[in-house]
From TrEMBL:
Keyword flag Metal-binding: yes
Protein name: (2Fe-2S)-binding protein
Source species: Streptomyces niphimycinicus
Keyword Iron: yes
Residue stretches making up the BFD-like [2Fe-2S]-binding domain: 2-50
Upper lineage: Bacteria, Bacillati, Actinomycetota, Actinomycetes, Kitasatosporales
Keyword field: 2Fe-2S, Iron, Iron-sulfur, Metal-binding
Amino acid sequence: MYVCSCFGITEQQVRQHAETGACTPRQIAGACKAGTDCGSCVRKIQALLGRGACPRREALDPVVLTTAAATAAASVPAPTAAEAA
């Protein structure tokens, strides 16, 4: 059955992308464009992925990596003069 009519993506294709590591609708969109046109299939994709349908791969998501790096950099205090010497 088709999940994304705009790009002709099937349930099987979404599951195959999930098996290879695409665990969020954003990652599925990056793999096959599903959900990037009209967006009506995003909820179907979320339902197919479900909770625990594939391992959490948030660390591979560039948005999460960028946010995590920025948060880590902001929380590290600058060294004091005594520590630098």
